[in-house]
Structure formats: structure tokens, C-alpha cells
Write a structure and sequence with these properties.
This protein is α+β, with helices and mostly antiparallel strands. The protein has eleven helices and ten strands. It binds heme C and copper (II) ion (CU).
Amino acid sequence: MSLSFMKKKPSRPLNVAWARFAAAMALLLGVGTASARVRWNFQTPVTPMAHQIFHLQDIMFGVCVVIFVLVFGVMFYSIFAHRKSKGHKPATFHQSTTVEIIWTAVPFLILVAIAVPATATLIKMENTSGSALTVRITGYQWKWHYTYPAQGIGFFSDLSTPVAQIENQEPKGKHYLLQVDHPLVLPVGEKIRFQITSKDVIHSWWVPSFGVKTDAIPGFINQTWTEIDVPGTYRGQCTELCGMGHAFMPIVVKAVSQKDFQKWVTAQKALMVASAAGSSKTWTEADLLSHGKTVFAANCAACHQITGQGIPGTFPPLSAGKKFSAAPAMLQQLRGRGFLTKDGRIVMGPVKNHLRIVLQGIPGTPMPSFAGQLNDADIAAVVTYERNSFGNHTGDVIEPSQVAAVR
Ligand code: HEC
Ligand SMILES: [Cu+2]
């Protein structure tokens, strides 16, 4: 064992250390104030709840500053004004019942003064009664799903930041990792109840300017609410570490007037009818491939990667004949399911098997079931795309009716 750390190091002159410390502090301050994008406070609140939270934090911050100044003021004054070199002697008494009572009672009163408004705020957050609209929010690895039960609308909301930006091939956009394909659309001036849950692991739905941050827990439904005062686009993030794609499931909310909300609802319903019709018609190969590419990017690329090449050891590639290295246990299972040759190469397999995997997932592995997430046309498209991309050239064209038959 080396004990080198115990050897005495030549000591550095103190003034060098201080100079470095001062330089670091100056740099921090400079960076902080020079960049216009730095905010020193919360996002602008746009709901009654967020206003209340903002106000609470102002009060608490004020209380803390007053205590800080008083306590440290007295302390530094005493150290300076009563120093030994001026002939002061340490006190010989250390007992005063009055002082003891005061310094117990004052903090107690401060705590009560803070706890009363804080508790009132928490209780108000829980009260979803009188809501005009209900939205169900479900967390998935790694995207959000929104349902409006009374309106019969439901859709996934996926990250839409281009992969090229994530991989540093393009400069990062203004809303890097904070943009989605389908934002949650909500009306302003109306109490909205959120019912929040998860399909897999714990996520958390957080939109700072709403003052809403509620855990999405599988098997439980957490309720909270909001009422947005100002139309606009608001952004948030999943705030519970939920696995590899945690940073890639942002939240975007578009708050619109009630009239525009009604228009949006009508348009969404028409879209859903069109999408249902898409599952009963026959698609051309070109349409399947282009739709499949979109479905793949939104649903599969997080694990199998946009290139379809997977990640060694974790997510298998989707290219037939491609080598896959992983722990022996995983390879053995893949081989057992017929996805891998003896020498460790990926097997594409028959169309029916392929459809079954995507529909049902592979239980006990991260490969999810897409039966409840994608319709027949989406699955037909994504499987057609897979079997004719990433170096695969099976030439298979899979129609929605084939998916329906396997479902
Ligand atoms: C959350 C991660 C994840 C997502 C999302 C995901 N997969 Fe998988 N997938 C896996 C894992 C892990 C396996 C290997 C499972 C095993 O151990 O057998 C797998 C296996 C597969 C296989 C069989 C093995 C192979 O390489 O041929 C296919 C086909 C497949 N996935 C297709 C898809 C498609 C299509 C989508 C999107 C609709 C998708 N996956 C989305 C994780 C994922
Ligand atoms: Cu999450």
C-alpha cells in the first residue's frame, strides 16, 4: 500500500492560494453576470399556485437574510470590538435562563410563521375540486402520454430535437432538448385537473412556471391542478431520474384561449379518425417507409439508436448479420429466442415473429410492448422500415391488416 498521501508536500505560499481563489470567484461572478441567459430567480409564474409559491419563497428568503445579517453581524462585531488585544477577558458566567428561553422561543415563532402559509399552500395544491377539464398524464421511458378522457383524445409527446444536435454535428438550437412533436395544449382561465401516473418507473411531471411538480408512480394516480393566466408556450422536464433517456423527455405546454382550445380539440378528433382510417387502408411501400422512419425515431431510437446499430452490451442492433457483444446471459437469451446466430450475429427472422416482438415486447427485458402505444399502421410502417433499412434488404412490405391479424 502506498502512503504517499501522508508524506508532507512542500507547502505553497499562502498568497498564491488566495490569488487563485480570488481569480476563481471573479471568474464565476463575471460568467454569471455577463451571460444574459442566466436567471437569478424562478421562472415567471403564470398560475395562482406558482404565484403563491413564488411569494412564499420571497418571504422565506427575506427571513433567512434577516437572520443571517443579525447573527453574523453580532458575531463579527463581538469578535472585533471585544478582542483580547484590547484587554477584554472571557466571560465567567455561562448561564442565563432568560436568554435560553428567548433563543428557544424566537426560532419556534419563526417556524410557526413559516409553517402556516406553507401548509396552506400545500393543502391548496391538493384541492382539485371544481376542475373544468381533466388531463391524464402518463410517464413512459422516455416520453409522456396525454389523454383528455372527456374529449376522447390521446397522444404521445416525444422529444423532437434533431439527433444531429444531440450528437454535436449541428449547433444546438434555442430550445435544445426542450421541444416535442406534440405539445400538451391547454385552455387559459380554467381550472385543469391533472391525474399523473406511470407505465414503468417513477417519473415526475414538472413545469416550473405553473408551480406543478408531481411524481408519476406506476400503480398510483397522483392528482394536482393548474389554472393558467397567460397564453404562451411553457417548458418543463421529467424531474425524477428514470434511466438512460431521462434527459430526453421534456414537457411542452401550449396555453391557448378557450376558443382556440375548442378548435384544437375538433382538429385532434379529425386526426384520430384519419389515423384509425389509416389502419384499414392499403399503404404504398414509399408511404410505409417514410412513416416508419418517423415512428422509429420517436419510439425505438432511444434504445436501438437512430442508426439502428444499438449499443453494445445493452441494446441489440436491428441489422441482420451484425455482431452483438453483451454479457453471456443476455446473449444466451437472445440466442434462445432465435435472434442471434451461434457466432453472435443478429437474426431478423420471419415477419410474424418480428410483428409479435414489437406488439408484445420481450417480457423481462427493457424491450417494451407497443400494442397499446402504436396503431396497426404505425407498427406495419416501423417494421417495414426496419426490414429495409440499417443494411437490411428483405423487400418485405407489411400492411396494417397483417398487423391486425397478429394482434
Ligand atoms: C427501452 C428500450 C427499447 C425500446 C424503446 C425499443 N427496444 Fe427493441 N429491444 C430492446 C432490448 C433490450 C432488446 C433485447 C431484448 C433481449 O434481451 O432479448 C430489444 C429487442 C428488439 C428486437 C429483437 C432483437 C433484434 O435485434 O432483432 C426487435 C426486432 C426490436 N427490439 C425492435 C424494436 C422496435 C421496432 C422498437 C420501436 C417500435 C423498439 N424495439 C423499441 C430495447 C428497446
Ligand atoms: Cu422520466
